[in-house]
């Protein structure tokens, strides 16, 4: 009888332990499911946040690139269009809207002679140190500062490249520059500084105007040299010789590249080599 009671007690204990283990297992499983649901929800929130941030960055960059590309874009046909059409290339040039006749200010604190990359970088540095600085850039082209390297690289390979550093509305009007309360930048186009009086700090322009300044930077850049053999040649020969430096030179050479059977490049430096590769890519010479 005692053995029978002990056996029944052991059986009851086993049942209790089994039930307790089962309850513990279910409780742990429910807790794990709850944690998994919480973890899954948190993970999805993090993924959604990261995706939203990535999309915002991509959209901002895309809008900035579109903004840069609207100033000047050379859209070139692909190879199939070039082979199937007698007109090998379609050129689409959208240049900045030409400004009205500019009134030249008589005085500016900062005068930058030249409208290339060096002047643009100097302008950025000046504005970074002095947010109220008034900067006038004088250039001999009818364009705002732009990057010249793409003229001998990307544009020859059919890439759509915005070459201007800033949109037109970034620059103010030269006439209004001295009266700007919080400073600004203006570009005086189609003008050359032909003489400087460094003692009195006066710059003399090619149209007879004078500009007084506090500080001046000369950053006119380099220019290609013509050769005496071409300068002294007949007009027929001179009409076939072109120098390469700016946007107008690119447009001219780009047109010639599709109307001539052969082109000779004089100069084996970086620019000459890049143009040779670009021309070879665009046509058969």
TrEMBL record:
SUPFAM superfamilies per the UniProt record, alphabetical: FAD/NAD(P)-binding domain (SSF51905)
Gene3D superfamilies in the record: FAD/NAD(P)-binding domain
InterPro entries associated with the record: FAD-oxidoreductase/Apoptosis, FAD/NAD-bd_sf, FAD/NAD-binding_dom
The enzyme's E.C. designation: 1.-.-.-
Positions of the FAD/NAD(P)-binding domain: 111-283
GO cellular component: mitochondrion
GO biological process, one term: mitochondrial respiratory chain complex assembly
Keywords, comma-separated and alphabetical: FAD, Flavoprotein, Oxidoreductase
Molecular function via GO: FAD binding; NAD(P)H oxidase H2O2-forming activity
Protein name according to UniProt: Programmed cell death 8 (Apoptosis-inducing factor)
Organism: Mytilus galloprovincialis (Mediterranean mussel)
